[in-house]
Specification:
alpha/beta, four-stranded parallel beta sheet, binds ligand F0G
Protein backbone atom coordinates (compact mmCIF):
# COMPACT_ATOMS: atom_id res chain seq x y z
CA UNK A 1 0.00 0.00 0.00
CA UNK A 2 2.96 2.38 0.58
CA UNK A 3 3.22 3.40 -3.06
CA UNK A 4 -0.43 4.30 -3.43
CA UNK A 5 -1.57 7.92 -3.59
CA UNK A 6 -2.74 9.44 -0.28
CA UNK A 7 -6.44 8.91 -0.96
CA UNK A 8 -5.92 5.16 -1.31
CA UNK A 9 -5.17 4.51 2.34
CA UNK A 10 -7.23 2.10 4.39
CA UNK A 11 -9.08 4.93 6.18
CA UNK A 12 -10.90 5.40 2.90
CA UNK A 13 -14.05 3.32 3.29
CA UNK A 14 -15.53 3.80 -0.19
CA UNK A 15 -16.46 1.16 -2.71
CA UNK A 16 -13.11 0.88 -4.41
CA UNK A 17 -11.46 0.24 -1.04
CA UNK A 18 -13.99 -2.49 -0.22
CA UNK A 19 -14.70 -4.11 -3.56
CA UNK A 20 -11.58 -3.24 -5.57
CA UNK A 21 -11.00 -6.92 -6.43
CA UNK A 22 -14.22 -6.86 -8.43
CA UNK A 23 -13.64 -3.49 -10.10
CA UNK A 24 -11.63 -2.59 -13.22
CA UNK A 25 -9.61 0.08 -11.38
CA UNK A 26 -5.83 -0.16 -11.82
CA UNK A 27 -3.74 -0.21 -8.64
CA UNK A 28 -2.02 3.01 -9.68
CA UNK A 29 -5.23 5.03 -10.00
CA UNK A 30 -5.97 7.71 -7.45
CA UNK A 31 -9.43 7.03 -6.04
CA UNK A 32 -12.03 9.74 -6.29
CA UNK A 33 -14.31 8.82 -3.42
CA UNK A 34 -16.71 10.27 -0.88
CA UNK A 35 -16.89 7.03 1.12
CA UNK A 36 -20.02 6.01 -0.75
CA UNK A 37 -21.83 2.69 -0.31
CA UNK A 38 -22.40 0.65 2.88
CA UNK A 39 -26.00 1.85 2.82
CA UNK A 40 -28.58 0.42 5.25
CA UNK A 41 -30.63 -2.65 4.43
CA UNK A 42 -33.75 -1.99 6.47
CA UNK A 43 -36.49 -4.54 7.18
CA UNK A 44 -39.87 -3.18 6.07
CA UNK A 45 -41.99 -4.51 8.92
CA UNK A 46 -45.30 -3.39 7.49
CA UNK A 47 -44.75 -5.24 4.20
CA UNK A 48 -43.44 -8.50 5.66
CA UNK A 49 -46.04 -11.25 5.76
CA UNK A 50 -45.21 -13.83 8.44
CA UNK A 51 -48.25 -15.90 7.42
CA UNK A 52 -46.76 -16.39 3.95
CA UNK A 53 -43.15 -16.40 5.18
CA UNK A 54 -42.40 -13.27 3.15
CA UNK A 55 -39.56 -11.02 4.34
CA UNK A 56 -39.09 -7.57 2.78
CA UNK A 57 -36.06 -5.29 3.00
CA UNK A 58 -35.25 -1.87 1.56
CA UNK A 59 -31.77 -0.97 0.35
CA UNK A 60 -31.74 2.70 1.31
CA UNK A 61 -29.56 4.30 -1.33
CA UNK A 62 -30.54 7.81 -0.29
CA UNK A 63 -27.93 7.32 2.44
CA UNK A 64 -25.14 7.78 -0.10
CA UNK A 65 -23.11 11.04 0.06
CA UNK A 66 -25.11 12.92 -2.59
CA UNK A 67 -28.33 11.17 -1.67
CA UNK A 68 -28.65 8.59 -4.44
CA UNK A 69 -27.21 5.35 -5.82
CA UNK A 70 -25.44 7.34 -8.53
CA UNK A 71 -22.47 7.84 -6.19
CA UNK A 72 -21.58 4.16 -6.57
CA UNK A 73 -21.17 4.58 -10.30
CA UNK A 74 -19.58 7.97 -10.06
CA UNK A 75 -16.67 6.96 -7.79
CA UNK A 76 -15.51 4.47 -10.42
CA UNK A 77 -16.35 6.67 -13.43
CA UNK A 78 -14.51 9.70 -12.03
CA UNK A 79 -11.56 7.63 -10.82
CA UNK A 80 -11.17 6.25 -14.32
CA UNK A 81 -11.82 9.58 -16.04
CA UNK A 82 -9.03 11.21 -14.06
CA UNK A 83 -6.77 8.18 -14.53
CA UNK A 84 -7.33 8.39 -18.31
CA UNK A 85 -6.50 12.10 -18.37
CA UNK A 86 -9.96 13.64 -18.74
CA UNK A 87 -10.21 17.27 -17.74
CA UNK A 88 -13.98 17.37 -17.49
CA UNK A 89 -17.07 15.18 -17.38
CA UNK A 90 -20.41 15.55 -19.11
CA UNK A 91 -23.78 13.88 -18.67
CA UNK A 92 -27.46 14.23 -19.48
CA UNK A 93 -29.57 13.83 -16.39
CA UNK A 94 -32.99 13.89 -14.80
CA UNK A 95 -31.15 15.23 -11.73
CA UNK A 96 -29.37 12.65 -9.63
CA UNK A 97 -26.64 11.84 -12.12
CA UNK A 98 -25.92 15.54 -12.45
CA UNK A 99 -25.71 15.97 -8.67
CA UNK A 100 -23.32 13.04 -8.31
CA UNK A 101 -21.22 13.97 -11.36
CA UNK A 102 -20.91 17.53 -10.05
CA UNK A 103 -19.86 16.41 -6.56
CA UNK A 104 -17.31 13.82 -7.69
CA UNK A 105 -15.91 16.20 -10.33
CA UNK A 106 -15.52 18.83 -7.60
CA UNK A 107 -13.68 16.26 -5.50
CA UNK A 108 -11.44 15.41 -8.45
CA UNK A 109 -10.78 19.07 -9.23
CA UNK A 110 -12.16 18.86 -12.76
CA UNK A 111 -15.17 20.47 -14.44
CA UNK A 112 -18.65 19.03 -14.87
CA UNK A 113 -21.12 19.91 -17.61
CA UNK A 114 -24.65 18.72 -16.99
CA UNK A 115 -27.52 18.75 -19.47
CA UNK A 116 -30.93 18.69 -17.82
CA UNK A 117 -34.55 18.93 -18.94
CA UNK A 118 -35.87 22.44 -18.47
CA UNK A 119 -38.19 22.69 -15.46
CA UNK A 120 -38.55 18.92 -14.93
CA UNK A 121 -35.88 18.39 -12.34
CA UNK A 122 -36.40 18.24 -8.58
CA UNK A 123 -35.22 21.36 -6.81
CA UNK A 124 -32.72 19.70 -4.47
CA UNK A 125 -30.89 18.05 -7.35
CA UNK A 126 -30.58 21.33 -9.22
CA UNK A 127 -29.25 22.97 -6.06
CA UNK A 128 -26.64 20.24 -5.72
CA UNK A 129 -25.34 20.57 -9.29
CA UNK A 130 -25.19 24.35 -8.90
CA UNK A 131 -23.49 24.28 -5.51
CA UNK A 132 -20.83 21.86 -6.67
CA UNK A 133 -19.95 24.27 -9.44
CA UNK A 134 -21.17 22.35 -12.46
CA UNK A 135 -22.03 24.20 -15.64
CA UNK A 136 -25.77 23.55 -15.78
CA UNK A 137 -27.29 23.51 -19.27
CA UNK A 138 -31.08 23.34 -19.36
CA UNK A 139 -32.49 22.20 -22.68
CA UNK A 140 -36.04 22.80 -23.82
CA UNK A 141 -36.44 19.08 -24.29
CA UNK A 142 -36.48 15.94 -22.17
CA UNK A 143 -33.81 13.55 -20.87
CA UNK A 144 -33.86 11.47 -24.07
CA UNK A 145 -33.05 14.58 -26.14
CA UNK A 146 -30.20 15.41 -23.76
CA UNK A 147 -28.86 11.88 -23.97
CA UNK A 148 -28.72 12.01 -27.79
CA UNK A 149 -26.78 15.28 -27.61
CA UNK A 150 -24.16 14.18 -25.08
CA UNK A 151 -23.66 10.85 -26.83
CA UNK A 152 -22.90 12.60 -30.11
CA UNK A 153 -20.36 15.00 -28.59
CA UNK A 154 -17.00 14.73 -30.38
CA UNK A 155 -14.83 12.22 -28.53
CA UNK A 156 -11.48 13.99 -29.19
CA UNK A 157 -12.13 16.41 -26.36
CA UNK A 158 -10.71 15.37 -22.98
CA UNK A 159 -14.26 15.15 -21.64
CA UNK A 160 -15.57 11.85 -20.25
CA UNK A 161 -19.23 10.91 -20.69
CA UNK A 162 -20.44 9.71 -17.28
CA UNK A 163 -23.95 8.53 -18.06
CA UNK A 164 -24.56 4.83 -17.41
CA UNK A 165 -23.53 4.04 -21.01
CA UNK A 166 -20.08 4.46 -19.44
CA UNK A 167 -19.27 0.86 -18.37
CA UNK A 168 -17.41 2.03 -15.25
CA UNK A 169 -20.70 3.37 -13.90
CA UNK A 170 -22.30 -0.08 -13.98
CA UNK A 171 -19.27 -1.65 -12.30
CA UNK A 172 -19.61 0.77 -9.42
CA UNK A 173 -23.37 0.29 -9.14
CA UNK A 174 -23.14 -3.52 -9.11
CA UNK A 175 -21.60 -3.27 -5.62
CA UNK A 176 -25.07 -2.68 -4.16
CA UNK A 177 -25.86 -6.31 -5.01
CA UNK A 178 -22.64 -7.39 -3.26
CA UNK A 179 -23.62 -5.47 -0.15
CA UNK A 180 -27.09 -7.03 -0.08
CA UNK A 181 -25.61 -10.53 -0.25
CA UNK A 182 -22.90 -9.68 2.28
CA UNK A 183 -25.60 -8.43 4.68
CA UNK A 184 -28.29 -11.06 4.17
CA UNK A 185 -25.82 -13.93 3.88
CA UNK A 186 -27.72 -15.02 0.75
CA UNK A 187 -29.23 -13.57 -2.41
CA UNK A 188 -32.85 -12.41 -2.17
CA UNK A 189 -35.47 -14.32 -4.19
CA UNK A 190 -36.88 -11.17 -5.79
CA UNK A 191 -35.33 -7.77 -6.34
CA UNK A 192 -37.67 -4.85 -7.12
CA UNK A 193 -36.14 -1.64 -8.41
CA UNK A 194 -37.10 1.46 -10.39
CA UNK A 195 -36.13 1.47 -14.05
CA UNK A 196 -35.50 4.63 -16.05
CA UNK A 197 -32.46 4.60 -18.29
CA UNK A 198 -32.03 0.94 -17.20
CA UNK A 199 -28.40 1.14 -16.09
CA UNK A 200 -29.14 0.17 -12.51
CA UNK A 201 -31.10 -3.02 -13.18
CA UNK A 202 -28.27 -4.07 -15.51
CA UNK A 203 -25.68 -3.25 -12.84
CA UNK A 204 -27.47 -5.19 -10.08
CA UNK A 205 -27.78 -8.20 -12.33
CA UNK A 206 -24.06 -7.98 -13.09
CA UNK A 207 -23.32 -7.85 -9.35
CA UNK A 208 -25.57 -10.80 -8.48
CA UNK A 209 -24.09 -12.78 -11.33
CA UNK A 210 -20.48 -12.05 -10.35
CA UNK A 211 -21.06 -13.22 -6.77
CA UNK A 212 -22.89 -16.28 -8.12
CA UNK A 213 -20.00 -17.09 -10.44
CA UNK A 214 -17.52 -16.54 -7.60
CA UNK A 215 -19.62 -19.16 -5.71
CA UNK A 216 -20.44 -16.78 -2.89
CA UNK A 217 -24.11 -17.70 -3.38
CA UNK A 218 -25.89 -20.42 -5.28
CA UNK A 219 -28.98 -18.47 -6.32
CA UNK A 220 -29.80 -15.14 -7.97
CA UNK A 221 -33.00 -13.13 -7.61
CA UNK A 222 -35.72 -12.57 -10.16
CA UNK A 223 -35.25 -8.95 -11.23
CA UNK A 224 -38.51 -7.00 -11.23
CA UNK A 225 -38.16 -3.71 -13.09
CA UNK A 226 -40.65 -1.08 -11.90
CA UNK A 227 -41.65 1.83 -14.13
CA UNK A 228 -43.99 4.79 -13.98
CA UNK A 229 -47.09 4.20 -16.13
CA UNK A 230 -46.46 7.35 -18.20
CA UNK A 231 -42.86 6.33 -18.91
CA UNK A 232 -42.93 2.56 -19.23
CA UNK A 233 -41.16 1.52 -22.45
CA UNK A 234 -40.19 -1.87 -21.00
CA UNK A 235 -43.80 -2.64 -20.20
CA UNK A 236 -45.03 -1.63 -23.65
CA UNK A 237 -42.00 -3.21 -25.33
CA UNK A 238 -41.00 -0.12 -27.28
CA UNK A 239 -39.67 3.41 -26.69
CA UNK A 240 -42.22 5.97 -25.54
CA UNK A 241 -42.25 9.49 -26.95
CA UNK A 242 -43.18 12.32 -24.57
CA UNK A 243 -42.82 10.31 -21.33
CA UNK A 244 -44.67 11.90 -18.44
CA UNK A 245 -44.67 11.20 -14.72
CA UNK A 246 -44.41 13.02 -11.42
CA UNK A 247 -41.45 10.77 -10.68
CA UNK A 248 -39.20 13.03 -12.74
CA UNK A 249 -36.05 10.95 -12.10
CA UNK A 250 -37.47 8.17 -14.29
CA UNK A 251 -39.24 10.33 -16.87
CA UNK A 252 -37.43 8.50 -19.67
CA UNK A 253 -38.89 7.05 -22.87
CA UNK A 254 -35.85 5.67 -24.66
CA UNK A 255 -33.63 3.81 -22.18
CA UNK A 256 -29.99 3.42 -23.18
CA UNK A 257 -29.38 0.03 -21.53
CA UNK A 258 -32.32 -1.60 -23.31
CA UNK A 259 -30.58 -4.86 -24.26
CA UNK A 260 -28.83 -5.36 -20.91
CA UNK A 261 -32.07 -4.82 -18.99
CA UNK A 262 -33.97 -7.24 -21.21
CA UNK A 263 -31.22 -9.83 -20.68
CA UNK A 264 -31.40 -9.30 -16.91
CA UNK A 265 -35.15 -9.81 -16.93
CA UNK A 266 -34.97 -12.89 -19.08
CA UNK A 267 -31.99 -14.59 -17.43
CA UNK A 268 -33.38 -13.91 -13.96
CA UNK A 269 -36.96 -15.01 -14.67
CA UNK A 270 -38.15 -11.52 -13.74
CA UNK A 271 -40.64 -9.11 -15.26
CA UNK A 272 -41.45 -5.42 -15.74
CA UNK A 273 -44.47 -3.67 -14.32
CA UNK A 274 -45.85 -0.14 -14.20
CA UNK A 275 -47.53 1.91 -11.47
CA UNK A 276 -49.45 5.11 -12.03
CA UNK A 277 -48.49 8.36 -10.30
CA UNK A 278 -51.17 7.98 -7.60
CA UNK A 279 -49.82 4.56 -6.64
CA UNK A 280 -46.25 5.91 -6.63
CA UNK A 281 -47.16 8.80 -4.35
CA UNK A 282 -49.13 6.59 -2.03
CA UNK A 283 -46.17 4.18 -1.76
CA UNK A 284 -43.89 7.15 -1.05
CA UNK A 285 -46.26 8.31 1.68
CA UNK A 286 -46.64 4.80 3.08
CA UNK A 287 -42.87 4.46 3.47
CA UNK A 288 -42.60 7.84 5.12
CA UNK A 289 -45.62 7.37 7.44
CA UNK A 290 -45.28 3.73 8.33
CA UNK A 291 -41.61 2.88 8.00
CA UNK A 292 -39.91 6.20 8.72
CA UNK A 293 -38.13 6.23 5.37
CA UNK A 294 -38.36 9.32 3.17
CA UNK A 295 -37.44 8.48 -0.39
CA UNK A 296 -38.08 10.37 -3.59
CA UNK A 297 -41.07 9.48 -5.79
CA UNK A 298 -39.01 7.58 -8.38
CA UNK A 299 -37.65 5.37 -5.61
CA UNK A 300 -41.10 4.57 -4.26
CA UNK A 301 -42.03 3.00 -7.60
CA UNK A 302 -40.23 -0.15 -6.43
CA UNK A 303 -42.50 -0.42 -3.40
CA UNK A 304 -45.56 0.51 -5.47
CA UNK A 305 -44.62 -2.41 -7.73
CA UNK A 306 -44.14 -4.72 -4.76
CA UNK A 307 -47.53 -3.79 -3.30
CA UNK A 308 -49.14 -4.71 -6.64
CA UNK A 309 -47.24 -7.99 -6.80
CA UNK A 310 -48.14 -8.91 -3.20
CA UNK A 311 -51.79 -8.19 -4.00
CA UNK A 312 -51.97 -10.28 -7.16
CA UNK A 313 -50.08 -13.19 -5.58
CA UNK A 314 -47.37 -13.24 -8.25
CA UNK A 315 -44.76 -13.89 -5.54
CA UNK A 316 -44.04 -17.24 -3.97
CA UNK A 317 -44.41 -17.82 -0.23
CA UNK A 318 -41.33 -18.31 1.93
CA UNK A 319 -39.29 -15.77 -0.01
CA UNK A 320 -37.02 -12.80 0.70
CA UNK A 321 -37.55 -9.61 -1.24
CA UNK A 322 -35.35 -6.53 -1.56
CA UNK A 323 -36.60 -3.18 -2.89
CA UNK A 324 -34.06 -0.54 -3.83
CA UNK A 325 -34.98 2.95 -2.67
CA UNK A 326 -32.74 4.79 -5.08
CA UNK A 327 -32.80 8.37 -3.78
CA UNK A 328 -33.41 10.60 -0.77
CA UNK A 329 -36.81 12.28 -0.38
CA UNK A 330 -35.30 15.65 0.52
CA UNK A 331 -34.23 16.06 -3.07
CA UNK A 332 -37.81 16.77 -4.09
CA UNK A 333 -39.41 18.88 -1.37
CA UNK A 334 -42.03 20.32 -3.75
CA UNK A 335 -43.68 16.97 -4.43
CA UNK A 336 -43.58 16.07 -0.73
CA UNK A 337 -45.13 19.32 0.43
CA UNK A 338 -47.77 19.35 -2.31
CA UNK A 339 -49.20 16.03 -1.07
CA UNK A 340 -49.06 16.80 2.66
CA UNK A 341 -51.45 18.76 4.88
CA UNK A 342 -50.32 22.31 5.54
CA UNK A 343 -48.89 23.05 8.98
CA UNK A 344 -51.46 24.66 11.30
CA UNK A 345 -50.72 28.29 12.06
CA UNK A 346 -51.53 29.50 15.56
CA UNK A 347 -50.62 32.22 18.07
CA UNK A 348 -47.43 31.66 20.12
CA UNK A 349 -49.29 30.66 23.28
CA UNK A 350 -49.69 27.45 25.27
CA UNK A 351 -53.46 27.55 24.83
CA UNK A 352 -53.30 27.90 21.08
CA UNK A 353 -50.74 25.10 20.66
CA UNK A 354 -52.65 22.84 23.09
CA UNK A 355 -55.95 23.51 21.31
CA UNK A 356 -54.41 22.64 17.98
CA UNK A 357 -53.04 19.37 19.43
CA UNK A 358 -56.47 18.46 20.82
CA UNK A 359 -58.24 19.56 17.63
N1 LIG B 1 -34.28 6.26 -9.23
C1 LIG B 1 -33.72 7.47 -9.21
C2 LIG B 1 -33.88 8.30 -7.98
C3 LIG B 1 -32.99 7.94 -10.33
O1 LIG B 1 -32.44 9.14 -10.29
C4 LIG B 1 -32.90 7.12 -11.47
C5 LIG B 1 -32.20 7.58 -12.67
C6 LIG B 1 -33.50 5.86 -11.43
C7 LIG B 1 -34.19 5.46 -10.29
C8 LIG B 1 -33.45 4.92 -12.57
O2 LIG B 1 -32.19 4.34 -12.72
O3 LIG B 1 -31.73 5.10 -15.02
O4 LIG B 1 -30.37 3.31 -13.96
O5 LIG B 1 -32.72 2.87 -14.64
N2 LIG B 1 -31.75 8.73 -12.83
C9 LIG B 1 -30.93 9.18 -13.94
C10 LIG B 1 -30.42 10.58 -13.69
C11 LIG B 1 -31.53 8.97 -15.27
O6 LIG B 1 -30.12 11.31 -14.64
O7 LIG B 1 -30.28 10.96 -12.52
P1 LIG B 1 -31.71 3.88 -14.17
Amino acid sequence: MENLPPSNRSTDAGLIARYGDYLPVPKSAQWISLNEGSTPLVRLHTLCDPGRGIEVFAKVEGANPTGSFKDRGMTVALTMAVHDGSEAVICASTGNTSAAAAAYAARAGIRAFVVIPDGKIALGKLAQAMMHGAKVIQITGDFDDGMEIVKSMPTEAPVALVNSVNPFRLHGQKTAAFEIIDTLGKAPDYHFLPVGNAGNISAYWMGYTEYYEARKVNTRPAMVGCQAAGAAPFVSGRPVSNPETLATAIRIGNPQSWELAQQAREASGGWFLASDDDAILSAQKFLAHREGIFCEPASAVSVAGLITALGDESLEDGTTIVCTLTGQGLKDPDTAIAQSPEPVRVAPTLTAVRDSILD
